[in-house]
Amino acid sequence: MIELTLIGIGTGNPEHMTLQAIRALNRVDLVLIPKKGPRKGDLAGLRRAICEEMLTDPAVEIAEFDLPVRDAKNPSYKDGVDDWHDAIADVWTGTILSHLGRRGKVALLVWGDPSLYDSTLRIAERVQNQIEMTVQVIPGITSMQALTATHAIPVNEIGAPFTVTTGRNLRDHGWPEGVDTLIIMLDGECSFQAIDPQGVHIWWSAYAGMANEIALSGPLSEAADTIIETRAKAREEHGWIMDIYLLRRDTKAET
Predict the structure, then answer these.
(1) What Enzyme Commission number(s) appear in the record (predicted)?
(2) Which residues neighbour 235 within 8 Å (Cβ) at sequence distance 6 or greater?
(3) CB-based contacts of 139: which residues, under 8 Å, 6+ apart?
(4) What is the number of domains present in the chain?
């Protein structure tokens, strides 16, 4: 049987690795590292750096594979993602079988935490339909935690709920009812532009928790243009960007 361990590695900072994660990494036979193309080579490089620093057993093998590209032209977003996940699962399966056969321990280093807006667990389920495999999860620091730590803010007001959602949902459906605090992930279009900025404060971070982190905050009406410009420059410089932000309504101003 294959034993797959999904290890949350935080936001790419080796210091985000927990002791549990380090021990789990050193118990496997094989580590899978996805490659997302030359412009996102930093992502594979950071995973390799973590392995170089944390692995103590030279017998652990590292296998890199090219990650399939999602068909963004598919008119159905869900269907496109499902097809993409099927393709990724096929690559995982082929890579595991070619290196380990049907017996051994394999790890995949997951950005942030495998439970929060990440599809690794769903892909692992598809792999289980192809080979006999168990799945273990080691939790990791999330970009949400890194964001609030950088800005030294609590994620919620006293006794109040908050919502974690995507830029697509904010853009298409607006501000959810019943909450005054939103954390927005997976937003490639600065979807805060779609809401009324009056009385809203934003805390934004790109490359959260990493050495090249960029953090900006302020009233949305004043900070929006600066964030949009900064984000575009950072993406051009690095070839990729991961960002996250928290929006909070000033409820005191309404009373």
Answers:
(1) 2.1.1.152
(2) 241
(3) 8, 18, 113, 114, 115
(4) 2
Q: What three-state secondary structure class fits 35?
A: strand
Q: Which domain holds residue 10?
A: 2-138
CATH of the domain at 94: 3.40.1010.10
Find the helix packing angle between 120-128 and 77-100, rounded to 10°.
Answer: 60
CA distance to 26, 30, 143, per residue, from 59 (Å): 10, 9, 32
| Residue whose C-alpha is closest to residue 7's, from 90, 105, 78 | 105
Residue 253 has pLDDT above 60, yes or no: no
* Strand ranges inside 9-132, DSSP E: 30-35, 61-66, 104-110
d(CA 255, CA 248): 15
Span of 30-44, 136-150, 151-165 with lowest mean pLDDT: 30-44
